Amino acid sequence: MTSPRGEVRAAAAGPAGVRMGASAAEADRTLFVGNLDTKVTEELLFELFHQMTGLDIEKDQIIEMACLITDSDLNILAKGPNLIIKQPDELLDSMSEWCKEHHGKSGLTKAVKESTITLQQAEYEFLSFVRQQTPPGLCPLAGNSVHADKKFLDKYMPQFMKHLHYRIIDVSTVKELCRRWYPEDYEFAQKKTASHRALDDISESIKELQFYRNSIFKRKTEEKKRKIIENGENEKTAS
Around Cβ 62, how many Cβ atoms within 10 Å? Predict the structure, then answer.
């Protein structure tokens, strides 16, 4: 697909995007999101989820896609498009029984049949959004089992993916580590509602990651600081 509106660098958008007098290096890593007076740097996350007709990269397709941009504290800075993508009835009819049941129950199958948005139009919308909000190569893709999303996006939305960072942040990895290392805490983790709609899934992923950050990572950081202080006091006593 032709790149929409050329190569637009959001960080170098002028007075609305970067403060006057900023250095070139700072301009590359600093912007103001939309109308928010929020300065964002290298800590942005691109939270994304999409629904597919299945997991076979050779024959299945994306049917719904939504995204949010957060800062490193998981505060939502910008809400992106939430699009349902038109796919042929033959593809929908060939979905697995699991997909037929859950996409039918959620209303997604019906919405896909009624949609007029093509895959190319969807890529244009998402690429335009992320270019307006982030400089190239800044945001890693984040979400639950996001490696699966990345496979489909690399194939079906390559221009969009080129704008993102090559790394991913997979919340499911954190989940599995928490389940193994901190099973007592894992019992209180965010549980999925199984709505199987893109925007709902993103919101749940953010809440889940917030839980791990607040109950696991923060606690361990505080323990480390306490041990450093204790070790320092012990060294003073010994001397």
Answer: 23
Architecture of domain 38-169: 2-Layer Sandwich (3.30)
Of 91, 100, 104, 85, whose CA–CA distance to 58 is shortest?
91
Strand 62-70 to 31-32 pairing:
unpaired
For residue 168, give every residue at least 6 positions away whose Cβ sits within 8 Å of its Cβ, in sequence order, or none: 140, 141, 142, 146, 147, 150
Element of type H or E holding 151: helix 146-156
The percent of residues in the chain predicted with pLDDT above 70, rounded, is 73
Q: Average the pLDDT over 164-170 and give the result.
A: 93
Where in the chain are the domains? 38-169
Q: Kindly state the helix (H) or strand (E) to which residue 50 belongs, with its residue range.
A: strand 45-52
What contacts 16, CB < 8 A, 6 or more positions away? 32
Q: What is the pTM of this model?
A: 0.72
Q: Residue 121: which of 159, 93, 68, 72 has the closest Cα?
A: 159
pLDDT per residue as tens digits for the range 172-195: 999 999 999 999 999 988 777 666
Name the catalytic one among 102, 103, 163, 196.
196
- 165 part of the active site: no
Give the DSSP letter string of 111-141: HHHH----HHHHHHHHHHHHHHHS-TT-PPE
- Phi and psi at residue 13, in whole multiples of 5°? -80, -5
Alpha-carbon distance of 191 to 210, in angstroms, equals: 13
